[in-house]
Amino acid sequence: MAKFRLETKDLAEKLFVDLMGRNIVFQDNSVKTPVSSESVAKLCFILAETFLHVQDDLNAANLPKDPTFKLGAEDIAGWMK
C-alpha cells in the first residue's frame, strides 16, 4: 500500500461534503440518506487516492529529464543576456 498523503484526506473531505450534500433528504423533521455515510467516506478516499495517482502520472512528464543537473546563478545570468 502506498504511503498516506495529506492531500488525499483534503480531497476526500471535499468529495464527501459534495456527495453527501447532494444525497441528504430533509423530511418530517429528520435527515435521511439513501446510502451509508461510512460507505460514501470510503468511496471518497478511494476516489481521492486514484485522482492524485493519475495527477502524479500526468505531472511526471513535466519533471526534469536529467536529475543530476544543478541550476546555478551563472546559468540564470546567461539567460538574462
Question: Could you describe the 3D structure shown?
Answer:
- Helices cover 60% and strands 7% of the residues.
- Helix 1 crosses helix 2.
- The chain has helices spanning 6-23, 37-60, 73-79; strands spanning 25-27, 30-32.
- It is mainly alpha-helical.
- The protein has a two-stranded antiparallel ribbon.
In one word, what is the shape? elongated
The biggest beta sheet is recorded as:
2 strands, antiparallel
Number of helices: 3
Give the strand order, joined by hyphens, for the main sheet.
1-2
| End-to-end distance | 49 Å
Mean pLDDT: 88
What is the N-to-C order of secondary-structure elements (H for helix, E for strand)?
A: HEEHH
Low-confidence runs of at least 5 consecutive residues: none
Number of strands: 2
- Rg over alpha carbons: 22 Å
Q: Beta-sheet strand percentage?
A: 5-15%
> Helix/strand/pairing class, anyone?
mainly alpha
Q: What's the SSE blueprint?
A:
Layout: H1 6-23, E1 25-27, E2 30-32, H2 37-60, H3 73-79
Features:
single chain; mainly alpha; 2 strands; 60% helix
Q: How would you sum up this structure in a few lines?
A:
The chain has 81 residues and is mainly α.
